Amino acid sequence: LKTRTCILKSVEINDCGVGMLGCRALGEALEVNKSVVHLQLDMNAFGDAGVAQLGDSLPRNQSLTALSMQYCDMTPEAGIIIAQRVMKLSTLSSLNLRGNALGEE
């Protein structure tokens, strides 16, 4: 995933115990890999720290169209980070954050 020659389109890592370090590694990979259009990280309890690690890389990837991070123990602070980063990601058309405590429903 961390090479330009890797041509994965969809990455689904659900309920696999992805934590802060895993989010950092995924973020680094997304900076290099421009073929991934769908990233699903549902039910991994990486919380705000993981979002911070992944979030900085999102604007540097201009291929991602769908991002799902359902039930990942995020708080409103993570929601702010995501909102700031995805505004710079013009290709994103689907964002699913269901099941996180981001604030008022």
Automatic annotation (TrEMBL):
| Gene Ontology biological-process annotations | nucleocytoplasmic transport
> What cellular component GO annotations does this protein have?
cytosol; nucleus; perinuclear region of cytoplasm
Query: What keywords appear on the UniProt entry?
Result: GTPase activation, Leucine-rich repeat, Repeat
Could you tell me which Pfam families the record lists for this protein?
LRR_6
Q: Name the InterPro entries for this protein.
A: Leu-rich_rpt, LRR_dom_sf, RanGap
Question: GO molecular function of the protein, one example?
Answer: small GTPase binding
Name used for this protein in its record: Uncharacterized protein
Look up and give the organism this protein is from. Answer: Strombidinopsis acuminata
